[in-house]
Amino acid sequence: MTLAKRVVPCLDVKAGRVVKGVRFAGLRDAGDPVELSSRYRDEGADEVVFLDVTASLEKRATMRSLVRGVAASLDIPFTVGGGIRSMADARLALASGADKVAVNTAALRDPRLITRLADVFGSQCVVVAIDAKRTERGYRVFSHSATRAVEVDAVEWAQRAAELGAGELLVTSIDRDGTRSGYDVELLRSVSSRVGVPVIASGGAGRLEHFLEAVVGGGCDAVLAASLFHYRELTVGQVKDYLAANGVVVRP
Amino acid sequence: MRVEIFNYGAGNLFSIQAALKKEGVRTALTRDGGGLEEADAIVLPGVGSFNQAANALPMARIREAVESGKPLLGVCLGLQLFFSRSEEGEGEGLSLFPGEVKRFRSPGVKVPQIGWNTLTVRRDSELTQGLEGDEWVYYVNSYYPATKGRWVSATTRYGVEFPAVVSERNVHGTQFHPEKSGEAGRVMLRNFLRTVKR
Predict the structure, then answer these.
(1) How far apart are alpha carbons A224 and A205 in whole angstroms?
(2) In this structure, what CATH number is given to the domain that contains residue A16?
């Protein structure tokens, strides 16, 4: 056998509740994080990502009690991102039970943070999250929950992040986020073909075929979705069955 | 039962601790091995880097405890520390088995390996009892122990076929994370605890 492609529900968390918006705005309540993550585990989720969607804007620290609550009930891995700005933030999240931390804005501000995190905690628990938007000059990076343009090419930044020590890249299309019109396969392929670390596809999943496109066309190692799963329009199990039926190795 | 978990710096110790507590085990975190004599078993968890761990751990004390028969479980990096050297860094490991720790570098495989892969049991050991054939277990590793011998109880394929479970006498290790591997992981953690004399 070989390494399975992963199906990863993402829980955007604000003030202790799961929320979901469209293109990073218009947040709606979608449930309790511990309950939802346990449900996903039972449905066959391979791991779970928690993103504090407001942390970067409001300068809040990652929710320690939430991480502890999740870690105590979940026997699959999970990543925590949003508001991880320093070694101390990462240390707190990991010590509270997170398996990986995702950095975004802080890594753009100080790319050496990626290397420091990798040196101390190991590359395998350092995820660099990249929010990218298509422009006339190619894909550009946005920071601060996709509100601020950074004059950086998304594919170049992905390569640099991997060189600096990122163990995994979480690539989100801002254009597609919450729209259910499909992943940005071109963006994903541009990144995955140029880095030697795993890539998680994010932003735009709406139908079963989209997941297959991200894996086959986009060359991704994991597929992430949020609202589709929260509102039970698709289950993790359905996605896995579909991928398996199309020849993709998944954990049953 | 009391299990001493070595805390060598950085990362998620909460999960292995929580998994052991669920089995009714008392756990204690230690940096210097202060409570080693009284502990019923030792766990080397899987966080950090080889070099940093090798320098931070009281290697002589751990080796002594293992030689006296105290059960040891190494997880991920903890298993890699059973060997003398690693391509990850300069430090010197416990040298409990021959072989060394190597980096994945087969063409076409991404490093680190992150995710679920299957376990193939090559030789039954105390750790693998009760497993049902090919089990899925969770990996996050860039390095693997390159060792051959009767202590290799199960293997996994990722570009190369590498030892996934090492088990001999009182020394047991898993390259994957049993505390993150659902039911199969739970079975192996219980198997380890069953080897511990109360």
Answers:
(1) 8
(2) 3.20.20.70
A252 within domain boundaries: no
- Retrieve residue B47's tokens: 């966080």
Q: Domain of B121: which CATH number? A: 3.40.50.880
Split into its structural domains, chain B has a count of 1
Percent helix / strand / coil, chain A, rounded to 5: 35, 30, 35
The Cα B162–Cα B154 span in angstroms is 9
- Probe site for chain A from B8, B12, B157 (most A CB atoms < 10 A): B12
In a domain, A53, yes or no: yes
Q: How far is B166 from chain A (nearest CA, A)?
A: 20
> Domain for residue A1, yes or no?
no
- Nearest CB to B111 within list A99, A100, A196: A196
Interface touch A6/B141, C-beta < 8 Å: no
Q: pLDDT tens, position by position, for chain B (198 residues)?
A: 999 999 986 667 888 998 999 999 999 999 888 888 899 999 999 877 888 889 999 999 999 999 999 999 999 999 999 999 999 988 999 999 999 999 999 998 999 999 999 999 999 999 999 998 789 999 999 999 999 999 999 999 999 999 999 999 999 999 999 999 989 999 999 999 999 975
Determine, yes or no, domain membership for A230: yes
Q: Which of A70, A73, A75, A91 to mutate to test the interface with B (most CBs of B within 10 A)?
A: A75
- Alpha-carbon Rg for chain A, nearest whole angstrom, is 16
ipTM score of complex: 0.87
Kindly determine whether residue A121 and residue B10, on different chains, have CB atoms separated by under 8 Å: yes
Give the residue among A68, A163, A61 at the shortest CA–CA distance from A118: A163
Looking at CA atoms only, how far is residue A252 from chain B in angstroms? 9
Range(s) of the domain holding residue B190: 2-194
**Would you say A47 and A6 are in contact if contact means Cβ atoms under 8 Å apart?**
yes
Among the partner-chain residues B136, B157, B180, the one whose CB lies closest to the CB of A99 is B180
Q: Identify which of A115, A108, A118, A119 has the alpha carbon closest to the alpha carbon of residue A144.
A: A108
Quote the Cα angle for B68-B71-B77, to 5°: 115
Query: What residue numbers bound the domain in which A14 lies?
Result: 6-245
